[in-house]
Write the structure tokens for this entry.
Amino acid sequence: MIYREYGQTGEKVSLLGFGGMRFKNVDDHDECVRMMVAAAKGGINYFDTAPGYFETRSETVFGKGFAEMRKLGLPYFSATKTFESTETGIRKEIEAQLKRLDIPAIDFYHIWCITSLGGWENRKKDGILQTFRKLKEEGLIRHICISSHLIKSEIRELLMEGVFEGVLFGYSAYNFQTRQEAFDAIREKKLGAVVMNPLGGGVIPDHPELFKFIRRDGESTVAAALRVLWDHPEISVTLVGFDTIQHLNEALQAIEGYKPRTAAELEETKSKASASFEGICTGCAYCDNCPQEIPIPYFMDSYNQKLLNKNSKDPIGERLKWHWSLDKSVAGKCTSCGQCEDACTQHINIIERLKEIAG
């Protein structure tokens, strides 16, 4: 395993991290714990979850996994998040989280899912930064972190606050261009950097030919997608949501055979990334709150097929019909309220796409 410094915290974290958002069967606690222990034995020491993953059940599994790791003497760092912004809300949530996780303190606690600077200002008005400082002073959290889906200049503005020790954000082979200003701020502020969705929510391994520009001789698409991120010296942890032990082993094998690119080779690889990769939906499903009950994640997934499958006559329609059993006309129920776009972590023009799909 490779370990890197997490910003200026003095913590050394594993370059490959374990994400708790994709367990194949989160209710099979024994199997999930076996995966976590296998990861720890493979050198992974950064374990990330959230109260919203499987309706808090992921945190419960993590608590059992951490307990087993302590028995075996395996080191780990805990990372989780909160949507709450008031002191009352945050304290109520963290009290429950500490019980579920079965730990006295959270190593990396994240202000969760900042999708707009306006929303961030509202959370600051609620006193979120003061509360996080208090939690750190009281020893309930060890490091103050932020989880953001902002892009370009907006994420730079957020990270320049001067209070954060690390950041969690989405980054992969198809959105190089939207995150460069984040790396500028990370370097300037010397922040720890954890990246999520390194495989694009499955988009990259599902389209190996489209992403062949990241592969070197003998590499699988999954290994290449991870390694091209490991080539970024600013990245402390690449977070992968493992659903099975097989996928965990594939990632561990990828890091065992990792040979870094030079900075020049990395820039050459990034230059080959098509601008058309911007705007691909990663399937986070934060938009799944439509007042008209339109299953927006399914429609955005289907729109991905238009962006990714250039040779299909009707990629959106085929995906909707054969994969989701939906008709295009359902998209016509959209009233352009904008609720989905406010929640979208990729800042996709969802309303325009729904209108295009509906015809």
About this structure: The chain has a mean pLDDT of 91. The chain has two domains: 3-273, 279-358. DSSP finds 15 helices and ten strands in the chain. The CA atoms of residues 67 and 73 lie 10 Å apart.
